[in-house]
Amino acid sequence: MFELVSFLVMFYLGMKTFFFNKKHILMMLLSLEMLSLLIMSMIIFILSIYNYDSMMIVYFIIILVCEAVIGLVLLTLIVRSHGSDYIKSFSMLLC
């Protein structure tokens, strides 16, 4: 029961960080990574309860790594083209 409450608190904090820190793209990416790691830990917890195969965890970790790489590549391209990662410093219509 304690694990479920801690997962819900972490999910709330991750969503709060994502919605209220919209100044930098890096902070938004970090909060999305926190939510992804939370989902992965919830899957590990559920699979350990029911004694399922752990190959699903490996696939999910691969998807998380690909997501992080794509986010960092996009962040690098935005910083190189616009000079900073402030959201208000550029318009998405111009990209």
TrEMBL record:
Catalytic reaction(s) noted: a ubiquinone + NADH + 5 H(+)(in) = a ubiquinol + NAD(+) + 4 H(+)(out)
Transmembrane feature ranges: 25-50, 56-79
InterPro entries: NUOK/Mnh_C1-like
Entry's Gene Ontology molecular function annotations: NADH dehydrogenase (ubiquinone) activity
GO terms for cellular component: membrane
Keyword terms: Membrane, Mitochondrion, NAD, Translocase, Transmembrane, Transmembrane helix
Top-level lineage group: Eukaryota
Main location: membrane
A Pfam entry, by short name: Oxidored_q2
Family designation: Belongs to the complex I subunit 4L family.
Name assigned to this protein: NADH-ubiquinone oxidoreductase chain 4L
Source organism per UniProt: Blastopsylla occidentalis (Eucalyptus psyllid)
Gene: nad4l
